[in-house]
Amino acid sequence: EVQLVESGGGLVKPGGSLRLSCAASGFTFSTSSMNWVRQAPGKGLEWVSSISGSSSHIYLADSLKGRFSISRDNAKNSLYLQMNSLRGDDTAVYYCARAKENYGDLFDYWGQGILVTVSS
Amino acid sequence: QSVLTQPPSASGTPGQRITISCSGSSSNIGSNYVYWYQQLPGTAPKLLIYRNNQRPSGVPDRFSGSKSGTSASLAISGLRSEDEADYYCAAWDGSLSAGMFGGGTKLTVL
Questions:
Q1: Which of A86, B21, B26, B68 is the most buried (most CB within 10 A)?
Q2: Which H helix or E strand runs over A81?
Q3: A38, B61, B66 from B24: Cα distances, Å
Q4: What is the 3-class SS of A57-91, one letter each residue?
Q5: Contact at CB, B99 and A111, closer than 8 angstroms
Q6: Taking a contact as any Cβ pair under 8 Å apart, which residues of chain B between 78 and 97 contact chain A?
Q7: What is the DSSP secondary structure assignment for residue A85, as one 8-state letter?
Q8: Per-residue pLDDT tens over the stretch B16-59
Q9: CA angle B1, B23, B19 (to 5 degrees)
Q10: Any CB–CB contact under 8 A between B48 and chain A?
Q11: In this prediction, what percent of chain A has a pLDDT beyond 90?
Q12: Interface contact flag, B99 A47, Cβ < 8 Å
């Protein structure tokens, strides 16, 4: 059974940093594309970032470049999202999601999500 | 404003068939797969349709997807009260090298 479990969320002050983690199990992690998707309170889904199985291809939403970065550790079956210079509009539930590593394939399994609140 | 355009709301009565549209462009829907997700209140999105018209195991055949050119549709037949949820379309955009979601459609079962 595929399982994705996010951790590392919480309350952070504007300008602060946070590192989200996603622990994966139940599938071959190293050959799967991994992704972050977020959802602000009461809003729709927003793609954040994707990373290929070997980390050779990394994509990040233009609006987040320079502040967020994605990485993975295949030995630990873990995905990360480093978030710096956090702002109020980064407040959202962040989901970790898996995708098959074929061009154009999107998210088939999702974690339960982790809440990040940016507030003073 | 989302790159993929969906109607913000849709409604139907039990047993009815409804469709939800998703409009994009040649760089996303026109050249890549369309995915559909169902999100019940307070829960993570769930995959409903992948690769335009494929259903994952466990998804009832009341749900179907189609794509034509730069548009796609999700159809739900035999509408049930438990179908009341938010529905999102998504596609990869090759020009932007980014994932794209529609703004979501809130389905109400009257």
A1: A86
A2: strand A78-83
A3: 21, 25, 14
A4: CEEECHHHCCCEEEEEEHHHCEEEEEECCCCHHHC
A5: no
A6: 86, 88, 90-92, 96-97
A7: S
A8: 999 999 999 999 999 999 999 999 999 999 999 999 999 999 99
A9: 115
A10: no
A11: 96
A12: yes
